[in-house]
TrEMBL record:
Chain positions covered by the region annotation Disordered: 1-27
Top-rank taxon, per record: Eukaryota
Pfam families to which the protein is assigned, alphabetical: Oxysterol_BP
Native source species: Phocoena sinus
Full protein name: Uncharacterized protein
InterPro entries the record matches: OSBP_sf, Oxysterol-bd
Lineage of the organism: Eukaryota, Metazoa, Chordata, Craniata, Vertebrata
Amino acid sequence: MSNGTSDADLVDSHDDIDDEGEAGSVEDAHTLTKSKFLGMSTGVYNIGQGCVSCLDHDEHYILTFPNGYGRSILTVPWVELGGECNINCSKTGYSANIISHTKPF
């Protein structure tokens, strides 16, 4: 997909949204977070899914999100993503399972 536009809420004051032409894709997502203390770290489990719709081809890709981990929260903190994500398209049958391994202790 080479000619797509995306509308999103911007945090900064720059006007980065290109309103010319018709959008080639639409993104929609909802997620619920569930947090848990894991000793010297915290885990945030993302429960929910997103949908990326390619309007030119009438394809809808459903995807899930990885978990987030805040490590070494009492010293020098750092963040990593881990867990399993899935991407599926019912029209084409394409699917991907992405597993992100976290750094072992």
